[in-house]
Amino acid sequence: MGRIKPIRTYRNPIFLAREWAEAMEGGNFRTQRAFAKAIGLSHARVSQMLGLLRLCPDAREALDALGDPLYSRKVTERKLRPFTNLTKVEQKQGLREMLF
Fold first, then answer.
1. pLDDT value at position 1?
2. DSSP bridge partners of 10
3. How far apart are CA 83 and CA 48, in angstroms?
4. pLDDT of the residue at 5
5. What's the mean pLDDT when you consider all of the chain?
6. Which of 38, 40, 50, 93 has the fewest C-beta atoms under 10 angstroms from its C-beta?
7. 80 and 10 in contact (C-beta within 8 Å)?
8. Does residue 69 have a cis bond before it (omega within 30 degrees)?
9. How far is CA 49 from CA 5, 29, 40, 77, 100, in A?
10. Does the pLDDT at position 86 exceed 60?
11. What is the per-residue pLDDT across 21-38, written as a single tens digit (0 to 9) for each?
12. Nearest CA among 41, 54, 47 for reference residue 63
């Protein structure tokens, strides 16, 4: 009898970014650097994740609709990072291409 592989899940980066922002605010961290130290990550990593909150509302809404957790790595923080510097229209178009 074969071994059953567990279903791997991944966190939706927009959900994680919101959780971190709420934790920073609720934990009264004065800086991202202090928060990063508290959770054992680099300041750069925390900054990258929180940067996703700069996505336009439509893009954030589309990412929310995917739910959390995700069952594939189709959407990651690294793939979304370049979108934060695009216009609203470009973000929506790029996200549509990524998802479909």
1. 56
2. 70
3. 12
4. 79
5. 94
6. 40
7. no
8. yes
9. 30, 16, 14, 7, 23
10. yes
11. 999 999 989 999 999 999
12. 54
Distance of alpha carbon 77 from alpha carbon 73, whole angstroms: 10
Q: What is the pTM of this model?
A: 0.87
Q: Which residues pair with 70 in a beta bridge?
A: 10
The whole-angstrom separation of Cα 86 and Cα 71 is 27
Give residues with Cβ within 8 angstroms of 21, minimum separation 6: 50, 53
Number of residues in the chain: 100
19 falls in which pLDDT band (50, 70, 90)? very high
Residue 51 tokens, joined: 């940067």
Domain definitions of the chain by residue range: 13-99
Q: In this structure, are residues 68 and 15 in contact, taking their beta carbons and an 8 Å threshold?
A: yes
